[in-house]
Amino acid sequence: MLVSRSPAVKRATLGVVTLREKTLKPSRSESFPYAERVFVYGGVPTVYFDSGPSTGRAGAILFVHGLGANLTHFEYIAPPLERDGFRVCGLDLPGFGVSGKPHREYTIEYLAGAVLALLDHLGLPRAVLCGHSLGGLVCADVALRAPERVSKLVLISSAGLFKMPLPMRVAARTIMRQGLLAPALERNARRLLDLVFSERNERTERFIEQSTTRPDARFVVDLARVMSSAKRDLTSRHLLDEVRRLKMPTLVLWGGRDRLLPFSQVPKWASRLPDGELEVIERCGHMSIIEDPQRVLARMRVFLQKSSASSPGIISRAS
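Request: output the structure for the sequence above.
Response:
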């Protein structure tokens, strides 16, 4: 069992493990309002949060983060939805955040298994799955493998909604070797963060500060190792041939100024959803959950209140 280097772990009553952070971690919010706990997935300590059983009938929402990200990135989304009556939960995927980082092959299927394992651990037969970027592809994979466990699907600037051209796949796999990737990520951290956001505000500036001013020698090395292991799925896995199997109500949200993932194929993909909606959030980049969480929340709330989408493939733009 490989234990993450980051947190101190304290075993409490009833077998619950609670994390106590001793140091600030890159890209990790110290003001995230939920206690972080650990369950074991395939022998790997996996960090999660859970607001606890809902007192109403709203159900549960499980959040899944993107590449190089962690569960605290839903800091502005989860608490308001809990106040709406939802049980909110989420996890640091294995290999990310402060979860264990085993030396193994990382695939979308492996990461999706961790989401299903958390549902089992929490005793949730079904939940709304909400994934950002890589997390969207992971959530969609869960929905394809176990549709009975997914009541609705929310995909925010999601990976997997486009097909990367062969020359780009070859180039990306060449670059995504651990020895090349780690120094490249370290040298270009600020440049990459400039691509993440469209408009600067207090939240985005805080995120950039959290990402660049907290030295951790292992952060980039671990990320490069996981990305190198997962490069085949990261460059080749897409859902264009499987979209019609996603029969649950699905909301696709996309930043109108997303410079990290291409949008051109997304409307065609969304139009094939049996019960889907696509909304573009104008003047917003890749991480709308941090840059403009109010518009994300407004759209999610409308979607979550519906019994089903009003029109398959509908496209709208939020100003």
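The two ends are 48 Å apart (CA to CA).
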